[in-house]
Design brief:
The complex is a heterodimer of chains A (159) and B (704). With 159 residues, chain A is α+β, with helices and mostly antiparallel strands. Chain A has helices at 2-22, 80-83, 152-158; strands at 25-33, 36-41, 45-50, 64-70, 73-79, 93-99, 102-108, 110-118, 134-139, 146-150. Chain B has five domains: 3-136, Four Helix Bundle (Hemerythrin (Met), subunit A) (Up-down Bundle); 164-288, no CATH class; 324-378, Orthogonal Bundle (Helix Hairpins), CATH 1.10.287; 380-561, Heat Shock Protein 90, CATH 3.30.565; 566-703, OB fold (Dihydrolipoamide Acetyltransferase, E2P), CATH 2.40.50.180. Chain B is built from 20 helices and 22 strands. The chains are: A alpha+beta (159), B alpha+beta (704). Chains A and B meet through strand 4, strand 5 and strand 7 of A and helix 11, strand 21 and strand 22 of B.
Chain lengths: 159, 704
């Protein structure tokens, strides 16, 4: 019995150690839109494309830029600036994100880089702020920048 | 794909359904001949054996038991040939087989819906056992006393005035049968008056000796009306220890005559046809003029006669998940587009590349072929749907006491799988309508009208290249125009002051909420009418039209596109955007001047053409687009037609005709309800650009 207990304990401890190493960090892709630094979970990112012709669709809200043909798939493109009610900007960088079975492209100013973020440092958005499409905030390691966590689920449901 | 168990279940359902379909058609053809060929018996035996085996594997015990008994029965018939079944028993045999097929179908449906299986299979097994017993004894040269006795037991002494009987057997060895019977009598007494029923043997309450008699020949309840009996059936099923019961109608005329054999259907068909063709059930293979072979008036049952010498092709077929085919079609579509993107690449402009051009031409030929093949994979013959109608006509003939035969032609016509699935119900509904309302109530009426007493329903399919035309034609009494019009007026669909043309009256038949039959019948009137048929067909891009000649019958024509995935479209441009209009909606296009436009009272624009006025819709205004022509003489007017709608659409330019692969819009965009505004989907053009496919009727509705 005691032997088994010991065995279990070691296993549990080992498992705990393993999770401690893996769990807290998550990869985020940083991008800039109208001077704000957003981070979208790398899990959700399918790919980044540039210079794609967007076919506009009539009768949809202005933040829906249109659709693109990505290797035979028709993907809607959303303009984040418009979504957040900001001015238009010539931007040609599209991040394709996936949430459940749906893919959409988001139009951003510039894609920065990938970072590992300790998810325990992500703090909830202050309850009364009108931050749309943001599910959390966190300070990056350099300490000088604050990343807004982009909420893909909210983006899809928004329509 | 899903986990292992599910795929086994899928395989089981698919296999069993296929077998049942095969069985259904074998039995139908054989019923025509009133006999089974040795080959049919073998295949039925095999089918039952397979169903038994696979149900046992899936642990569906009730299915296994029934299949097992049926297999046993056919083992006897197989060993002793069909001669073993006396002719008097044959109708019963066929009926029983249909019942068995229905039982399996019903159970499979339960399995598909995840419902528990029916536990109570005793009645069916009992019937099979009894028939087997009768076959076994009937086949022996000298019938043993046992069957004779049994038949005597089942005989019913009719009691005058009580033509509707219910014969009840209690569980074997349950004891006190007479008291159980008495309890039943009390239960029934609560349901209907004392004078409305009687029972046999009498004295069950007091005379214990009657118990013996009940065990042997059953307890008999006799009713004055069928309705009373139906309610009594309910009481009987609720009572304990009832093993089996059956309803027997004692015809008044036959009452004086000999006791009536229960369960044996009254009519008997003519002698078995000689030399049964190998009714190998692959009816689809016999497309050659079944019409010519059907001899009118030969038989009362629905008939599909065809010579079919083709062996089974089962081994050369495999079943493929539809998703894989969809994926294949999508990839092939991409290849075709990519191919034209490569060969027409702007980088190659001005270069002289002989070898490249040659290879490119070869590539184009191959990709075209690839596209054709991948499209053909989704095409299935309509025979599956057509065959089902045989059964419906047969059942309805028996139920309604009408005589009709179904004649199929062109079942080999191939249509996209999704379309085949969605036209099954509409066709069934139309056939039922024809059987129920179209065909005259009595054969005498038909003879009086100079028609063959056996009515005829023709179901035909043919391919015109761009669409499939399915016709359901009966030679019944036709549409009663006055009756329909009166009904339409009563329902508020028509106005009594307006003169309607015959065509307009026929259109009322397909209006929602219209049904000419005042009574809801088992078959036709289920609260759905022709409007549902129309809607289903329109959902797959087809149209329905009815024509009828009083006294000559009615023809319903379904025009259905070959496939929903590909269509011929006209590319038009408005501003910088490209739209695709389905070619079949386009009547004509005009280049007109401002002066040709007429303003109506509400400020809308109207264009006069060929003596009619059509409203004009400007794409640019409707879709609030920035670019595009505003002066009418700069653009072009397209005259469109969809169903009853007819109008003109103003666009900038016609770009040309193109075959396009229809793609649904991304689901994200469905939030904005743009479908209702006339955007049906999109397609990828040869240069990789996206064009929006317009839905002509929705476009008009949203503009109004």
């Amino acid at each position: 019995m005691s032997e088994r207990d010991v065995l279990f304990q070691t296993e549990d401890d080992l498992a705990l150690e393993a999770t401690v190493e893996v769990l807290p960090t998550e990869k985020f892709l940083l991008f800039i839109s109208d001077g704000l630094l957003f981070g979208v979970s790398a899990e959700a990112v399918v790919e980044i494309i540039t210079n794609h012709t967007v076919t506009s669709i009539p009768l949809v809200p202005d933040y829906v830029k249109g659709v693109i043909n990505l290797r035979g798939q028709i993907i809607p493109i959303l303009d984040i600036r418009r979504l957040l009610g900001r001015a238009d900007h010539e931007n040609a960088c599209i991040i394709i994100v996936q949430h459940e079975d749906n893919q959409v492209g988001i139009l951003v100013d510039q894609v920065e880089k990938m970072v590992d973020v300790d998810i325990t440092t992500i703090l909830p958005v202050p309850p009364h702020s009108n931050q749309e499409l943001v599910s959390g905030m966190c300070s990056l390691e350099e300490g000088r920048q604050t990343m807004l966590v982009f909420d893909c689920a909210q983006l899809m449901d928004r329509a | 794909m899903s986990d292992g168990n599910d795929s086994i279940l899928d395989a089981f359902l698919y296999e069993t359904n296929t077998l049942l379909e095969q069985l259904d058609s074998i039995v139908l053809t054989s019923e025509q001949q009133d006999s089974f060929s040795q080959e049919d018996i073998n295949s039925i035996f095999r089918i039952m054996h397979t169903i038994k085996g696979s149900s046992a594997m899936m642990e569906y015990n009730s299915l296994m038991t029934v299949a097992h008994r049926a297999e046993d029965m056919f083992a006897i018939i197989r060993d002793k040939t069909m001669d073993v079944v006396p002719e008097s028993l044959r109708p019963e045999l066929f009926d029983l087989l249909f019942q068995t097929i229905d039982f399996f179908r019903q159970e499979l449906e339960r399995i598909e819906n995840g419902q528990p299986l029916t536990e109570n299979i005793d009645t069916l097994v009992q019937k099979v056992n009894r028939l087997m017993e009768q076959i076994r004894s009937g086949g022996q040269p000298e019938p043993s006393p046992a069957p004779a006795k049994q038949e005597a037991h089942h005989a019913i002494t009719p009691v005058a005035g009580f033509p509707y009987a219910l014969q009840i057997f209690f569980d074997e060895g349950c004891g006190m049968e007479n008291l159980r019977a008495f309890m039943l009598v009390n239960a029934v007494r609560e349901l209907c008056g004392d004078s409305d029923f009687t029972y046999e043997p009498k004295g069950v309450e007091t005379d214990a000796a009657t118990a013996e008699q009940i065990v042997e020949s059953g307890f008999l309840l006799l009713f004055r009306s069928a309705a009373d009996r139906d309610s009594a059936v309910h009481a009987v099923t609720n009572a304990g220890a009832v093993r089996t019961y059956q309803s027997i109608d004692v015809p008044e005329a036959a009452q004086a005559a000999a006791p009536v054999q229960p369960a044996a259907p009254v009519q008997e068909t003519a002698a078995p046809a000689p030399a049964a063709p190998s009714a190998a059930a692959e009816l689809m293979a016999a497309a050659e003029e079944p019409v010519a072979q059907a001899v009118p008036g030969q038989s009362a049952a629905p008939s599909v006669q065809k010579v079919d010498n083709t062996p089974h092709h089962k081994e050369s077929l495999i079943s493929v998940n539809l998703n894989k085919l969809d994926h294949l079609a999508a990839v092939v579509g991409e290849i075709v587009i990519t191919e034209s993107m490569v060969t027409a690449s702007p980088d190659l402009k001005g270069l002289k590349l002989d070898a490249f051009t040659k290879s490119a031409r070869q590539l184009r030929k191959l990709t075209d072929e690839l596209q054709d093949v991948s499209m053909s994979l989704r095409m299935v013959p309509v025979s599956g749907v057509f065959q089902k109608m045989n059964r419906i006509v047969r059942d309805m003939c028996k139920k309604l006491g009408k005589q009709a035969r179904l004649i199929l032609s062109g079942e080999t016509t191939e249509v996209d799988k999704t379309i085949v699935d969605s036209i099954g119900d509409p066709i069934m509904h139309i056939v039922r309508n024809s059987m129920d309302h179209g065909i005259e109530e009595k054969a005498a009426d038909r003879i009086a009208a100079g028609k063959d007493p056996v009515a005829e329903i023709r179901l035909s399919a043919r391919n015109t290249g761009s669409e499939v035309i399915i016709e359901i034609k009966d030679d019944g009494q036709g549409v009663n125009y006055d009756g329909v019009l009166n009904k339409a007026i009563r329902n508020g669909l028509a106005s009594p002051d307006v003169e309607y043309s015959h065509r307009e009256i026929l259109n009322f038949l397909m209006a929602p909420g219209f049904s000419t039959n005042t009574q809801v019948t088992e078959f036709s009137g289920r609260g759905v009418g022709m409007d549902v048929v129309k809607r289903n067909v329109e959902e797959v891009g087809g149209t329905v039209s009815i024509s009828s000649e009083p006294g000559q019958g009615m023809t319903t024509t379904l025009k259905i596109p070959l496939t929903m995935a590909i269509m011929d479209g006209m590319e038009v441009s408005v501003g910088g955007s490209i739209f695709t209009i389905p070619i079949h909606n386009i009547r004509q296009s005009f280049k007109i001047e401002e002066a040709d436009l007429i303003r109506d009272a509400s400020g809308g624009e109207v264009f006069k053409c060929m003596g009619n006025f059509y409203p004009v819709i400007r794409m640019r205004d409707l879709y609030q687009m920035e670019g595009g022509c505003t002066e009418i003489q700069d653009g072009i007017l397209i005259w469109l037609e969809a169903g009853d709608l007819s109008y003109c659409l103003f666009v900038d330019e016609l770009l040309g005709e193109q075959q396009v692969v229809v793609k649904p819009l991304p689901s994200y965009l469905n939030h904005f309800n743009i479908k209702a505004r006339g955007i049906a989907g999109c397609t990828i053009l040869g240069d990789g650009n996206i064009s929006i496919i317009l839905d002509i009727s929705n476009l008009y509705t949203s503009a109004r």
